[in-house]
Amino acid sequence: MTAQPAAGTGALLDRPRERDPLLAVTGLTTSFPDGDGGRVQALDDVSFTVQAGRTVGIVGESGSGKSVLLRSILGLIDPPGVVERGDVVFEGVSLTQSSEAALRRIRGRDISTVFQNPAGALNPVVKVGDQFVEAVRLHERVSRPAAYERALALVTDVGFDDAAALMATRPYELSSGVVQRILIAMALVHGPKLILADEPTTNLDVTVEAQILDAIARIQVEYSTTVIIVSHDMGVVSQVSDEIVVMYAGRIVEHGETADVLTRPAHPYTRALIESVPTGRITAGTRLPTIPGTPPDLSRLGPGCAFAERCAYATDRCVTQTPPLVPGTHTLRACHNPLEAVAP
Ligand SMILES: Nc1ncnc2c1ncn2[C@@H]1O[C@H](COP(=O)(O)OP(=O)(O)O)[C@@H](O)[C@H]1O
Ligand code: SF4
Ligand SMILES: [Mg+2]
Question: Which UniProt keywords apply (predicted)?
Answer without folding.
Answer: ATP-binding, Cell membrane, Membrane, Nucleotide-binding, Transport
